[in-house]
Each structure stands twice: as C-alpha cells, then as structure tokens.
Amino acid sequence: MVSYGAHFAFILYFIMASLQLAPRYRVVPILSAVVMASAGLSLMREFSLWETSYELTGAVYTPLAENSSFTNAFRYGNWTITVPILLTQLAIAFALPRPELHKRAIRMIIPAVLMIWTGLYGQFGETGDFSQLNVWGVISTVFFVWLIVEVRGVISRGVQTSPVELKGWPKNIWWYFLATWGLYPIAYALPQLGFTGDVVVVRQLLFSIADISSKLIYGLILSRYVLRRSALEGYVPAAEALETSPLGSS
Ligand code: RET
C-alpha cells in the first residue's frame, strides 16, 4: 500500500518538475510520471491479489484457500514496461546525441528484457526442488551482467557530457543503480539463500524498498540533475523570467 500510494502521489510532482526544465529535458520527469502510473496500477493489483490470497492469523499470513494462489508474475510483466523507460531516461538525461541515444537505449533494453523474461519463467519454479529457479536465475543474471556493462557505458558518456559542476552525478547514479537494482535478484533468490522465515512477506518488503528506490527516488535524482543542468545551460523557467524582468518586478 505504501508503495502504490507513493507512486501515484509522485505523478503530480514529476509533471510539475517538467515545467521548470529546458524543453530537451522535459521528457525525463514526464517518463518518471509514466513509470509512476504504470507501477502504481500494477502494485495496486498485486496488493488486491495479496488480500484475496492470504489471511493474517495471529502473526503469520496463511493462504486463504486451496485454489487461491499468489504470484509475483504481474511485477515481471510491469517491469517489461518500466525498466526500458528507466534505462532510456538515463541516456536522455545525459543529453546523448540522438543516433547514439537510440543505439545505446536499444543495447540496454535487449539484455534488460531477456533478464526479466528468463527470471519470470524461473520464478514459477520455487515450489518443490529449486532447479528451475536456479537455472533460470543464473541465465537471468548473465543478462543482468550484460546490462550492467551497457549501463556503465552510458554512465561514462554521462561523465563526458555533464558540465564540470555536475560530473560527480553520473558516478553517484552508477553506485545507486547497482545498489538498488541488486535488491531484485536477492528477493528472487530468498528461498534458495536458506531463508526459512516468512519468505512471501520478506520478499514483498524487499520488492517495495527496491521499487521505491529504483523508480521514485531514482526519478527524483534524475529530475534534480536535469534541473541543475538545464539552469547551467542558461535556461530560465518562464515564471522566473517574468519575476526578474523589469516588467515583472515593477
Ligand atoms: C531477476 C531474476 C533473478 C536474476 C536477476 C533478476 C533481476 C531483476 C532486476 C529487476 C529490476 C527491476 C526494476 C523495476 C523497476 O520498475 C529477474 C529477479 C538478476 C534487476 C528496476
């Protein structure tokens, strides 16, 4: 509930933030608003599915009925939409020239989608023996490593294209990316990591922390970066321009 509430609320923030930006950067927070809407709807669906699948008895969640099942598969479906957007946003924020932007976005999206779909298949194998979970988890991780290499390339270009004052930003975004995207494979592997507690509950907690970090806070960071970049490149938002003009202040 915290997750989808936060995602829906920030749609407004990102739309408003776009108004402060030079036209070439406006699409960065707008894409965050799209991600917020898409993830919010998917998480709301996940929440209602949870409610029809489990009941809190004492301190533990127990399945409500034999024929009701809970699945995280909707999340993976949703990532297929949000992950390509999150990656493309990065290349747009770093103002890569258009042909390079397209090339780099596609080179990130291919391993990302393969990572998600192989993981989606693997996560159905977490009951019984863990061989399906493990084999497809490893295959998915290979695509993740490929994706990390591509993202590293975009980050390096970001350092090159950023104004001197902002060169530290892409480097920090890189560490932030690794720390937050790295939470997803941990949540996936919980049963195999020997975790014996309430796996379904702890996994929802991890996914929620990861979602708020990799979409919402990531969007905030990118918006602040393009806001600074836009100002350094000489853009003055319309309202401010009016306030500081002789006409506006008289
Ligand atoms: C899976 C399967 C196990 C191996 C790996 C995985 C990685 C998933 C990631 C997901 C990122 C999702 C994001 C969603 C935002 O909307 C598929 C769990 C490596 C990195 C950022």
Structure in words:
- The protein is mainly alpha-helical and 250 residues long.
- It has 10 helices and 2 strands.
- The chain has helices at 2-18, 27-53, 73-93, 98-123, 131-161, 168-181, 183-189, 199-232, 238-244, 246-249, and strands at 54-57, 60-63.
- The chain has a two-stranded antiparallel sheet with strand order 1-2.
- The longest helix has 34 residues, at 199-232.
- The relative contact order is 0.13.
- The chain binds retinal.
- Retinal is lined by residues 39, 79, 82-83, 115-116, 119, 137, 140-141, 144, 181, 184-185, 188, 214-215.
What sort of overall outline do the alpha carbons produce when their principal axes are compared? globular
Instruction: Give the low-pLDDT segments.
Output: none
Strand tally? 2
Distance between termini?
49 Å
Name the average pLDDT. Answer: 91
Tally of helical runs: 10
Q: What oligomeric arrangement do these chains adopt? A: single chain
Major β-sheet, in short?
Answer: 2 strands, antiparallel
The radius of gyration over CA amounts to 21 Å
Structural class: mainly alpha
Percent of sequence in beta strands: under 5%
Strand order of the largest sheet: 1-2
Name the bound molecules. retinal
Helix content percent band: over 70%
- Order of SSEs, N→C? HHEEHHHHHHHH
Short account of what is shown:
The protein is mainly α and about 250 residues long. It has ten helices and two strands.
